[in-house]
UniProtKB/TrEMBL annotation, chain A:
<keyword id="KW-0547">Nucleotide-binding</keyword>
<dbReference type="InterPro" id="IPR005286">
    <property type="entry name" value="Cell_div_FtsE"/>
</dbReference>
<comment type="similarity">
    <text>Belongs to the ABC transporter superfamily.</text>
</comment>
<dbReference type="GO" id="GO:0005886">
    <property type="term" value="C:plasma membrane"/>
</dbReference>
<dbReference type="InterPro" id="IPR027417">
    <property type="entry name" value="P-loop_NTPase"/>
</dbReference>
<keyword id="KW-0472">Membrane</keyword>
<dbReference type="GO" id="GO:0051301">
    <property type="term" value="P:cell division"/>
</dbReference>
<dbReference type="InterPro" id="IPR003439">
    <property type="entry name" value="ABC_transporter-like_ATP-bd"/>
</dbReference>
<dbReference type="GO" id="GO:0016887">
    <property type="term" value="F:ATP hydrolysis activity"/>
</dbReference>
TrEMBL record, chain B:
<dbReference type="Pfam" id="PF02687">
    <property type="entry name" value="FtsX"/>
</dbReference>
<keyword id="KW-0132">Cell division</keyword>
<dbReference type="GO" id="GO:0051301">
    <property type="term" value="P:cell division"/>
</dbReference>
<comment type="function">
    <text>Part of the ABC transporter FtsEX involved in cellular division.</text>
</comment>
<comment type="subunit">
    <text>Forms a membrane-associated complex with FtsE.</text>
</comment>
<dbReference type="InterPro" id="IPR003838">
    <property type="entry name" value="ABC3_permease_C"/>
</dbReference>
<protein>
    <recommendedName>
        <fullName>Cell division protein FtsX</fullName>
    </recommendedName>
</protein>
<feature type="transmembrane region" description="Helical">
    <location>
        <begin position="180"/>
        <end position="201"/>
    </location>
</feature>
<keyword id="KW-1003">Cell membrane</keyword>
Length: 229, 304
């Protein structure tokens, strides 16, 4: 599903690489936590997965494709098979919940009939059944994140990337979000989640990868958060 | 591709940047209006050239009896029939001359003169014997005038060789100068229009960075992401071009048909067919140029 072969990434005009010599493999259907302090390279790792950046050295394989060899115009096709969720939800404030989810389908040219059928289904799945016509501003943070997850999942992606999805939420709401992500993972979707939330990592007991100053320093199945911050 | 979705995005974008869109429309309208006007002016100059060059010719004026003291070639008084016949024969041998060579007698010259000046007081001052006889020579290539001049101006009996083009040339030079000036102004306006478009696209891309960011994440193709911006610019440009067309048609109607044509009747003015030929070009440029400008601006201001 995901394979890194000796991947390094150095941003232009910076001496210290953001990632150095990272090699790892993530299988189909896994649930992986990515932990590490700020500046350890988590964001760079996720950006490489989405091909927002290209690796300076080494090869990144996602969904069986070598991203270095993927031409620019094929990148959108690749991203359609990857869902993304962020700390700040990234919803469109002037569209309703339903329209926000539908937007993801409209811009990749899905037929209207299919959109009308799938949007309520996926909103039901994330626990927002019947809230299609609400505006994002009327919802709580947890509900907004559910909308974002619905949008990420509406294409039934093979891979879901979550960048601190619970970063803006209180612990109780976070648990709900994690349950949802776990449920999505059980449908066969691989989940890679960067987080600072110790409680969640310790509770879930999933595979944990720790980055420190750009190096992969720990890769543990059924791991814990493991360091104090 | 869902047309309705794209169209609603464009509508939102145009409304959001209403002032900028307006500025783009006005500057495109002015620059393309000038562009069309200068094309029409060039047309006008070339029809006038065709019309006049067809009418004008090289005149070889002969000495008449009053010129004995004046011209150097005319020392012997009026040109003899022999001299005239020699020159006529020689003209007929020259390949650049369009045959037949026309002869204008003093009486005919007087008649033309009367036609031109009619019953005005000047007409009474001239008598037929004051006007010289002449050959009116039409050249196949009007620019070869100097050949005739050098061949005949020093002949005995020839008073003067005159190219009538010399009298109309300054007018054409003036018109051409005006045309170049109009093109320069148009060029400047075009640069202004392009910069406005680039800036509009930048503002538009910035105010929609949330939408475009999400589009990118969910895998919309770059074509799909850029399309609304490019169409926006193209629509604004097309509106500007439409206004330019209105300006051109209005200008032709009011300025040329109603004003100039009544004042100056000797000039053949361009017809609606020339205008009709210019309008599609104006519209096409108005559509393509802003779209291209937007496309290149997007490469800089919109990450896809």
């Amino acid at each position: 599903m995901i394979r890194f072969d000796n991947v390094s990434k150095t941003y232009p005009k910076q001496n210290r690489p953001a990632l150095r010599d990272v090699s790892l493999e993530i299988e189909r259907g896994e649930f992986v936590f990515l932990v590490g302090s700020s500046g350890s390279g988590k964001s760079t790792f996720l950006r490489l997965l989405l091909r927002e950046e290209r690796a300076s050295h080494g090869h990144v394989h996602v969904l069986g494709k070598d991203l270095a060899k993927l031409s620019n115009w094929k990148v959108p096709q690749m991203r359609r098979q990857v869902g993304t969720v962020f700390q700040d939800f990234r919803l469109l404030p002037n569209k309703t919940v339903g329209q926000n989810v539908a937007f993801a389908l409209e811009v990749i040219g899905k037929p209207r009939g299919q959109i009308r059928k799938t949007v309520p289904e996926v909103l039901e799945l994330v626990g927002l059944g019947g809230k299609e016509d609400r505006m994002p501003g009327e919802l709580s943070g947890g509900e907004q994140q559910r909308v974002a997850i619905a949008r990420a999942f509406v294409n039934r992606p093979m891979l879901l990337i979550a960048d601190e999805p619970t970063g803006n939420l209180d612990p109780q709401t976070s648990v709900g979000i994690m349950k949802l992500l776990d449920r999505i993972n059980r449908t066969g979707t691989t989940v890679v989640m960067a987080t600072h939330d110790q409680q969640i990592v310790d509770q879930m007991r999933k595979r944990v990868m720790e980055l420190e100053k750009g190096r992969l320093v720990r890769d543990q199945s059924r791991g814990v958060y493991g360091y104090q911050h | 591709m869902r047309a309705q979705f794209v169209l609603s995005e464009i509508g939102v974008g145009l409304r959001r940047n209403l002032t900028m869109t307006f500025a783009v429309i006005v500057s495109v309208a002015l620059s393309l209006g000038l562009f069309g006007a200068s094309l029409l002016m060039r047309d006008q100059v070339s029809t006038m050239k065709g019309y006049w060059y067809d009418k004008v010719n090289v005149s070889i004026f002969f000495c008449n009896k009053n010129d004995a003291a004046a011209g150097t070639n005319c020392a012997k008084g009026a040109a003899t029939q022999q001299q005239k016949d020699d020159i006529k024969a020689e003209l007929n041998r020259l390949p650049i001359v369009q045959k037949p060579v026309q002869y204008e007698s003093s009486d005919q010259a007087y008649k033309h003169y009367k036609e031109q000046f009619g019953d005005t007081p000047v007409a009474g001052l001239v008598t037929p014997d004051q006007l010289p006889e002449s050959f009116r020579v039409k050249l196949k290539d009007p620019t070869k005038y100097s050949v005739i001049k050098s061949a005949f101006s020093e002949r005995p009996g020839v008073q003067e060789v005159q190219d009538q083009r010399d009298t109309v040339e300054p007018l054409f030079n003036l018109l051409n100068g005006m045309n170049i000036a109009a093109l320069c102004v148009m060029g400047l306006m075009l640069v202004v229009a392009l910069m406005l478009i680039v800036n509009t696209v930048r503002v538009s891309a910035f105010s929609r960075r949330r939408e475009t960011g999400i589009m990118r994440l969910v895998g919309a193709s770059s074509f799909y992401i850029q399309m609304p911006f490019i169409l926006e610019a193209a629509i604004a440009g097309l509106l500007g071009a439409a206004f330019a067309c209105v300006l051109i048609v209005g200008g032709k109607y009011i300025l040329v048909n109603n004003w100039l044509a009544e004042k100056i009747q000797v000039i053949n003015f361009i017809g609606w067919d020339s205008v009709a030929a210019v309008l599609p070009l104006v519209l096409l440029i108005g559509l393509l140029m802003p779209a291209l400008a937007a496309f290149f601006a997007l490469r800089k201001y919109l990450k896809v």
